[in-house]
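Sanity check

After download, print the first record. It should look like this:
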Amino acid sequence: FPKCDLYSDKRGSWVTTPDHSPNKSNIRYLEVEEHFIGDSGPGEALYFDQLWIPHNCSYHRFTNHTLHKCVKYLLKEKEEFGSIEHVEKQRIRIMFLGDSTTRAIFCGITRIIAGSEVYGPCQNIVCPSNNDVGIGKTVEFFDGLLEMTFVYVHTYDYPRVDWIIYDMAVTSADKPFAIIMNTGAWSFDGIARQHMGVEAKEYCDDNDNTTLEYSQIARGRASVEFNKSMWELGEAAHEAGVRLIYRNNHYNTRFGAHCADDRIEAALKGSRWEIWDNREMSRDVWREQTFDGLHFDRGSIHTYEEHVELVQTKIYNSIFWGFKHWPSAGQLEMQLSQSLLQSLFHDCLMGSVPNKLLF
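Expected structure tokens:
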């Protein structure tokens, strides 16, 4: 299959992996491999219960080695275009603004760099915790060539996310390559706590009494002031050569994913913001991949034995939260991490020669 266009890997479906299938003939390895580019093929994804297959295109399953190569490729590109000639320390900087769900995707990338999607580790100053609102925590990889920063934010207004983004993307002389932003969980936290144990509807409707409160929050999230600010930030960041990516919310039990983001996405249509869709990949598996209906975080560095214990704990917690099982710890977390890398390093994957890999 041809390489997936930017963000087209989000359209696809989950299939049972060969090793986990009761009927081993229901999917052949050759059929799986057609959807992956690079020598590593599906890689560690085969260890999970299910495998994400994009529709009619192929994507790359990043490893430490290929991510390192892409970082060096982008640095070389930036150097040739002169966009980092005034920066003392040449590196790719990626910044995350969000809550614990965005942090989990951040942690997923550190697992890939550490060498194991399945067993971790992600031990650093960010994962598995960092709840200091508005305070950035930074980690470096590949001898400083890749720098990732996570800033915990509650809502767009707390802290002032627009100020943070403007400072990072426009004011700073040391600009990031990309900024990924997400909010939602804290916006709906108050009403979600009032309805614990009740699954929020996917969409919210002003005419439906059961979703009116959710709808009011959703409208506030996409206020006139917010939309104007986001557009202006998009233009300013684009002029500065910084990519702004809005991560919409994955499916969850606390608030409707469409309710939270549909108005925001409509407002951003045609702007310089990129929309990274987390809904499609989570639609059919979120119940099994969240231990409390929202979080798919795992622990920090751990051995195989600790991993087994972790999974058993998640199974117990999932029963406590009203879910029946919690297979393949990290399956969705890692797929979202891989999807983000697919978009961040899309130019590297496409390369200067059509249909030819750089690794």
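If your output differs, re-run the checksum step. Summary of this record's structure: The first helix runs from residue 29 to 33.
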